[in-house]
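Hi F.,

I've been meaning to write this up properly since the lab meeting, where we talked about keeping a consistent format for the predictions we share between groups. The idea is simple: the sequence comes first, exactly as it goes in, then the structure tokens exactly as they come out, then a line or two of notes. No screenshots and no reformatting. I'm using this chain as the first example so we have something concrete to point to.
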Amino acid sequence: MEADSAVMKKHLLNVLKGLIIGASMLIPGVSGGTMAIVLNTYDELLAAVSHFFRDPKRHGILLATFSAGGLVGVFLFSKVILTITERFHYPMMFFFLGAILGGIPALWKKTGIREFRPLQLLWPLLGIGIVSLLSFTPDSLFNVNSDNPVYLLMLVLAGILAAVALILPGISISYMLLVLGLYEPTMTAIHEIQISFLLPMAIGLAVGTLLMVKLLETAMTKYPSVTYPIIIGFLLGSLPQVFPGIPSGIHWLICPITMAAGFLAIWTLSRISSD
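Output, unedited:
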């Protein structure tokens, strides 16, 4: 009986973590992968996808509970986050900035670096450079008319690119959608359950996930002192996209508070999950 209770508790905890990760992916600049690291569950999820057929029952239950929570988080909070961000733009964007920065200590811990050397700065700079290049993607690239036969293929391709951001910590799926000019259409499609939009995106996400997961698992296991600093660079490189500009008026007082709140929320969550 106690064993069954422990298993049920673990499943419920996985659903809750999935809900948090799903909600976090709606926030521009906040990476679902980084949130999974903060919640101390990223390695487990990566292994479950990569080695699914070795133990399909165990890995399937794990992925199903996380996916259920993630879907609830996405559908439950999509309209709420969009509305609050529109109504309180500056305070919320500064909250997101703090949340991004709050994930860096957990990522740095994963590097295994005990003695810092100046040459190690090259890896975060590489990550910043990669994300900066993404910002040059034309917004109109995926604005294809829905009557065009190419429309569905473009959505599948967008899903594959979003999967890279979904799997790779440090690059937020919301940031990727912003870069592709698809953030608001995707939020609207989720809220209104537009199957013709969401299904091709979901197919692309599945394909992109399968392509990325094994490569990333190998890199993070064998080369953590290189991989994680690059991921930190991804995070830092996403900050300009989230930064709304210099606040004015009462926002001078509110924005630093919301930024500190975002940092402390994610930092505290990472500390609790690592205990």
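Notes:
The chain has one domain: 2-274.
The chain has 13 helices and no strands.

If this format works for you, I'll send the rest the same way.

G.
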